[in-house]
Amino acid sequence: MSLDPNQSPVNPARMHQPDQSMVDLIFEYVNGRIGLPEAPIDGLEDRDAMRIAMEGMIGSAPKDPAYVMDIYENAMSETILSADSPRFFGFIPAAPTKASLLFDMVVSAASLQGCSWFEAAGAVLAENQALRAMSDIAGMPQSAGGTFVSGGSAGNLSALVVARDTARRKRAEQGLPLYPLSVVVSDQAHSSIKNALNIVDMQAVVVPTGDSGRLTSQALRSALTEINTANVVAIIATAGTTNAGIIDDLAAAAEIAREHDWWFHIDGAYGGAGLLDPRKRDLYTGVELCDSIVMDPHKWWFAPFDSAALIYRDPYLAKSVHTQDASYLDVIHDTDSEVLNPSDLAYHLTRRARGMALWFSMAVNGLDAYRDAVMAGNDMARYAADSITKTDNLELILEPDLSVVLFRRESWTAMDYDNWAEDLLQRQIAFVTSTQWQGETVGRLVFLHPGTTTDMVDQVLATLI
Ligand SMILES: Cc1ncc(COP(=O)(O)O)c(C=O)c1O
């Protein structure tokens, strides 16, 4: 299609006036995209052609919306991998429900912010309902509460700020040094934990997990005999490591945290949703004892980017640490309401009511549908693991706790895995990435989309024989 890029004349008022033709243009695209039975993997479109097509896009004069949208659809969109394809098995995929995607548009269309009870009571209550559902599933007390932040990294960081400042307060009362402080983590903790510790100026005491990749009671206790724990203020366990989907021994971590009066944080950004699978529930024993937990709706709770639930056992501790004070904000703090302001519970102030897409989807689908969808991911991982075990030149590296499968292809080097991934992408069979396990490059498949079929998995495994 050849479209005239220019739209004249310049008209600043147009920016805020209803424009039915632009509404129709965007809705037509959205309708088509949301109506796709299976999102394609994409990611292949020529990037140089895209650069040329996008040259001069933003200038002082307006461009025709149809022209710009055409460039998006035909030059840009297909350079972007669709993490919501049921054939996307790399990193941590996404699989937002149709309801959550649609309601996310409502949040945008109505400019819904979710800062405070004063400004946005309905949004705050809706988000709190979704947080309540999640914290009930985790078995946390009724006093637990939190907020939705942009992602797991932001959630881990905000929780560690509370852990640090709560510890500092206690230590100041006890006359203990406030610097340096350190945190016990496993060698499998997500990279965001290392970054967060760097930002909050705390040191990591790294516990090696060995072949199991799991932070066990034994690994923890033996590591603790070798370190000086005087400066430790927190322990972080992972409920579903990113690399291998392993759930740490949460009960052991909770017990050690209690013994030492340390903060106990759980990074369940990916794997927290596994709590919904009753067959896996025992693996999470001790989750209910955490001081804070992060679970990302934009991962396995089937919500759009960007959304992470950050839940505290005692949200008032978070409020005392994160609340921003300024005279122009007094109005949101001078309230008799017992409902806490989401803005006061993490490192943010203005915030999109990003939990509402999850809330709407939970309401219209019901939590049993969420349970079944999470179980489907775990079932698919089991299917892939069993198929790998039955195949001669493939070896399963670990029995999957959740929906990540690591495997070895006999005699393959790192380059073979890269070539394999490239070939699958070129043929749009799947998006896969390799990883490292104990220093070796291995294959990694992550299952999260309930639309993934055994046929799709078979097609991938057939390319490994
Ligand atoms: C266990 C874990 N923690 C934290 C993160 C970071 O989350 P985000 O990418 O939403 O910042 C991830 C991302 O995959 C993760 O798997």
Report on this model:
- With 465 residues, the chain is of the alpha/beta class.
- The protein has 3 domains: 12-81; 102-367, Type I PLP-dependent aspartate aminotransferase-like (Major domain) (Aspartate Aminotransferase, domain 2, 3-Layer(aba) Sandwich), CATH 3.40.640.10; 368-462, Aspartate Aminotransferase, domain 1 (Alpha-Beta Complex).
- The protein has 15 helices and 11 strands.
- It has helices at residues 20-34, 47-54, 65-76, 98-109, 117-137, 152-174, 191-199, 217-225, 250-260, 315-322, 330-333, 356-365, 367-390, 414-426, 454-462, and strands at 145-149, 181-186, 202-207, 232-238, 263-267, 292-295, 308-312, 394-396, 404-409, 433-437, 440-446.
- The strands form 2 sheets. It has a 7-stranded mixed β-sheet, sandwiched between helices.
- Helix 7 (191-199) links the parallel strand 2 (181-186) and strand 3.
- The radius of gyration is 24 Å and the shape is globular.
- Pyridoxal-5'-phosphate binds at residues 92, 151-153, 190, 192, 238, 242, 267, 269-270, 296, 308.
- Pyridoxal-5'-phosphate binds next to helix 6.
